Amino acid sequence: MVGEIIDGVLYTHPRPRSVHSDVEGSVISDLRDPFQRGRGGPGGWWVLLEPGIELPGSPEVAPDLAGWRKERMPVLPADHPITVVPDWVCEILSPTTRGFDQRIKRPFYARVGVGYLWFIDLEAQTLTVSKLIDGRWSELGVFGDADMVRAEPFDAIEIAMAEWWPAVSPER
Question: Would you tell me how many other CB atoms lie within 10 Å of the CB of residue 133?
């Protein structure tokens, strides 16, 4: 089981399955070199898998992936949890987490000021990109199949969506 405390409430759900983990690995693989390491991209970001984040009223929040601009968080904390609100969060929707991610986490991320939210839907094989504008999520686009995507805030590179899906649907 995985547990997260959001606004003082403990939520639990089963650990992600292999397909979830595989897609998570594909996303971080596409983003980490150009944005964290500056290889083939602008650098300037920390991009982390399932980081433990402590925010007021929510001492344990763990998005599937999260990113911080290095100008806001110059170094990763070594001996304590991250207490800086992410600039970007990505949640991978699965049957056991879909409702939680959309009904609990989405409004929480808006309330604390996360700038961008990506939802990856394993069933639909889509990426939904949203940006926080005046405290509300504005959908920037929905992408999938063989789309080549430049998705904010990582629009400096093009992502081949088709490379995310083979492990999700072997019959494709």
Answer: 10
Backbone angles phi, psi at 100, to 5 degrees: -60, -45
Question: For the chain, which domains are there?
Answer: 2-164 (3.90.1570.10)
Of 4, 25, 51, the C-alpha closest to 120 is 25
Rounded to two decimals, the pTM is 0.91
Query: In angstroms, what CA-CA distances link 151 with 61, 63, 86, 128, 148?
Result: 24, 18, 17, 9, 10
* pLDDT tens by residue, 107-145: 999 999 999 999 999 889 999 999 999 999 999 999 998
Nearest alpha carbon to residue 65 among 44, 48, 43: 48
